[in-house]
């Protein structure tokens, strides 16, 4: 059996402040540090022993992975970083409060920007210093690969090829792989693996710091998927994510 563990990073400072984050590089909050450590403890208790791990270029996902692996006594395993696992780029919404944007534009519009498959937020201006083309992390990327905004569709389009070329092959070879990334980049993977429709993925939310396990047979046929933890608590956390952008 093959096991893939998806882990959304622990709560970030901007998660705590209910701000759109995207490619902005913000640190974990104290709660996020605890969530990352708790995730590592859970995985260790359940006997997970990934042979390698993947993460994004953003500190909150990298730090979550480090903290989880430290709790598992597995900081020695290979770790591969890729911009393709970055969060969805939220364009010019980055740094703005979700609830305040809902007050201004309405719950439905903000929900579309947050969760829809093909409706991107307003793009960040090309000359804005926050544009990722000015960030040294992305200096080696082709200009067409550097987004000014993204819908989930765009996020999925950059992630699925990497799943096929790298992660899935590592999973078949090593049997157990851990991916520490972001709410929307992981939703892109989940949509592909579970063949979800656009309406279905719109309603699907991933809480911070909760390990999400996919089990496959040796031919990568999905057998089952499940979160690790108390089902009622996880349901409550998923509802909290869904309600972040509603009017106050």
* Binned strand content: 5-15%
Shape: globular
Number of strands: 6
What class would the helix/strand composition place it in? alpha/beta
Uncertain parts: none
Helix content: 40-55%
H/E element sequence: EHHEHEHHHEHHEEH
Number of helices: 9
Write down the Rg: 17 Å
Distance between the termini: 46 Å
Major sheet summary line: 6 strands, mixed
Could you report the average pLDDT, rounded to the nearest whole number?
94
Strand order of the largest sheet: 3-2-4-1-5-6
Mind sketching the topology for me?
Elements: E1 2-8, H1 13-16, H2 30-45, E2 52-55, H3 59-72, E3 79-81, H4 98-105, H5 107-115, H6 152-174, E4 176-181, H7 183-194, H8 198-202, E5 212-216, E6 222-227, H9 231-242
Parallel strand pairs: 1-4, 2-3, 2-4
Antiparallel strand pairs: 1-5, 5-6
Helix pairs in contact: 2-3, 4-5, 6-7
Features:
six-stranded mixed β-sheet, 9 helices, alpha/beta, 248 residues
Summarize the structure.
Helices cover 42% and strands 12% of the residues. The protein is of the alpha/beta class. Strand 5 and strand 6 form a beta hairpin.
Question: How does this model look, in words?
Answer:
With 248 residues, the protein is an alpha/beta fold. Helices cover 42% and strands 12% of the residues. The chain has nine helices and six strands, in the order βααβαβαααβααββα. It has helices spanning 13-16, 30-45, 59-72, 98-105, 107-115, 152-174, 183-194, 198-202, 231-242; strands at 2-8, 52-55, 79-81, 176-181, 212-216, 222-227. The chain has a six-stranded mixed beta sheet with strand order 3-2-4-1-5-6. α2 (30-45) packs across α3 (59-72), α4 crosses α5 and α6 (152-174) packs across α7. The longest helix is centred in the middle third of the chain and has 23 residues, at 152-174. It is globular, with a radius of gyration of 17 Å. The mean pLDDT is 94.
């Amino acid at each position: 059996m093959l096991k893939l563990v998806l882990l959304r990073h622990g709560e970030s400072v901007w998660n705590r402040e209910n701000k759109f984050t995207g490619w902005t590089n913000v640190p974990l909050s104290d709660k996020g540090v605890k969530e990352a450590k708790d995730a590592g403890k859970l995985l260790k208790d359940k006997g997970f022993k990934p042979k390698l791990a993947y993460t994004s270029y953003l500190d909150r996902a990298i730090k979550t992975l480090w903290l989880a692996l430290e709790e598992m006594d597995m900081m020695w395993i290979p770790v591969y970083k890729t911009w393709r696992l970055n969060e969805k780029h939220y364009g010019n919404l980055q740094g703005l409060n979700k609830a305040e944007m809902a007050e201004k534009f309405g719950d439905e519009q903000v929900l579309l920007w947050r969760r829809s498959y093909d409706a991107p937020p307003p793009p960040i201006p090309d000359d804005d210093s926050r544009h990722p083309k000015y960030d040294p992390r992305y200096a080696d990327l082709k200009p067409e690969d550097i987004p000014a905004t993204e819908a989930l569709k765009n996020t999925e389009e950059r992630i699925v090829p990497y799943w096929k070329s790298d992660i899935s092959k590592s999973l078949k070879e090593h049997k157990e792989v851990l991916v520490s990334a972001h709410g929307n980049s992981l939703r892109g993977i989940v949509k592909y693996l579970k063949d979800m429709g656009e309406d279905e993925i719109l309603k699907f939310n991933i809480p911070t710091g909760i390990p999400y396990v996919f089990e496959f047979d040796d031919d990568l046929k999905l057998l089952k998927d499940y979160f690790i933890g108390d089902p009622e608590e996880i349901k409550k956390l998923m509802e909290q994510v869904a309600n972040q952008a509603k009017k106050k």
